[in-house]
Specification:
- The structure holds 2 protein chains of 2 kinds.
- By secondary structure, chain A is of the alpha+beta class.
- Chain A has 6 helices and 4 strands.
- Chain A has a 4-stranded antiparallel sheet with strand order 2-3-1-4.
- In chain A, helix 3 runs antiparallel to helix 4, helix 3 runs parallel beside helix 5 and helix 4 runs antiparallel to helix 5.
- The radius of gyration of chain A is 21 Å and the shape is elongated.
- By secondary structure, chain B is mainly alpha-helical.
- Chain B has a 3-stranded parallel sheet with strand order 2-1-3, with no helix packed on it.
- In chain B, helix 1 links the parallel strand 1 and strand 2.
- The model of chain B has no long low-confidence stretch (mean pLDDT about 95).
- The chains are: A alpha+beta, B mainly alpha.
- The interface between A and B is medium-sized, with 11 and 13 residues.
Chain lengths: ~170, ~140
């Protein structure tokens, strides 16, 4: 596998009004970017990440700040491996929260309580968003998928007559 | 007519290229640039900051094209929703197709870094998406 290229947004944005700084920070967080330093955010390069950072660069400039976009890669394979690990680590907290939420729903369903489907839908949406910014397949991704599947199955079993489950499987 | 956009196309731009070729300008030719300063003179720019045919309000460029060229086709409207979700990732239309489309076109761009080659292949992809949605909405 060819080594990935990286894009870095190096930026400085006025402290006030704080909304621009917060909006940029929030967008970078949503993209799953890793701050290498204050004002230096990195993403693995592809058409999407580059484009998103281009829009952000513009946004910073419009807010009266300075921003430059860099492409590159760390000097050594070891440094690159560390970077990849840091990206994986970045996703763990969110995956753990989804796993905990799914566990709660599964226990509820097992106890016979009617666990609302909307809550499962919300967790699944969060999982999709998380997976999209999980560029290097954090080890918890599989565990999260399993936890959601277990919750879904427990809730389906709690739905009542087994016939409803079987009916879904029929062509 | 010569159309130009930024290099390294993803869903929005590849979908716009398909839309131009199939619905707006069958004779279209395309240029891709790294820096807007390198854009060929007289070319119609799209999905470029400040261009007429670009993101506008909440819309992605594909949606802007549909509005500006008054393309009132149900299937194109649906493709616009999918392109919007894949491009802006705001789940505005919650189209399940957008996640797959994002993965496929993102990967195609990594394996086909030449935009002319990429767009040739993505044209087929959008033809297929159009045919599929059209059958669904007959």
């Amino acid at each position: 596998m060819e080594r990935p290229h990286w894009v870095l947004l190096v930026y400085r944005i006025p402290r006030e009004p704080s909304r621009h700084r917060v909006a940029v920070w929030r967008k970078l967080r949503d993209l799953g970017a890793l701050y290498l330093k204050d004002g230096v955010a990195a993403l693995p390069e592809d058409a999407v990440t580059r484009e998103q950072l281009e829009w952000l660069q513009l946004r910073v400039r419009e807010a009266g700040g300075e921003a430059t976009l860099w492409e590159g890669r760390p000097g050594t394979v070891a440094e690159e491996a560390e970077l990849v690990e840091a990206f994986r680590h970045l996703r763990e907290e969110a995956y753990r929260a989804i796993i905990a939420g799914a566990e709660r729903l599964r226990r509820k369903a097992r106890l016979g309580a009617r666990a609302p489907l909307e809550q499962l839908g919300k967790l699944e949406r969060e999982f999709r968003a998380e997976r999209r910014r999980d560029y290097f397949r954090s080890p918890l991704r599989g565990e999260t998928a399993q936890a959601l599947k277990a919750a879904r199955e427990a809730m389906r079993e709690g739905e009542g007559p087994a016939g409803t489950v079987g009916a879904e499987g029929k062509p | 007519m010569l159309w130009a956009t930024r290099r390294g196309c993803h869903v929005d731009r590849t979908a716009c290229i398909w839309l131009i070729r199939r619905f707006i300008d069958p004779e279209a030719s395309f240029a891709f640039f790294g820096d807007p300063a390198e854009a060929p003179e007289g070319a119609e720019l799209f999905d470029v900051v400040g261009a007429r045919l670009s993101h506008r309000g909440e819309d992605c460029s594909f949606e802007t094209f549909l509005k500006d060229y008054e393309l009132e086709d149900r299937v194109l409207r649906e493709i616009a929703e999918i392109v919007h979700d894949a491009d802006l990732m705001d789940e505005k239309y919650a189209r399940p197709e957008s996640e797959g489309l994002d993965a496929i076109v993102r990967g195609m761009q990594l394996s086909l870094p030449d935009d002319h080659t990429l767009a040739g292949h993505t044209d087929t992809l959008y033809d297929g998406l159009y045919a599929y949605l059209r059958r669904e909405t007959l």
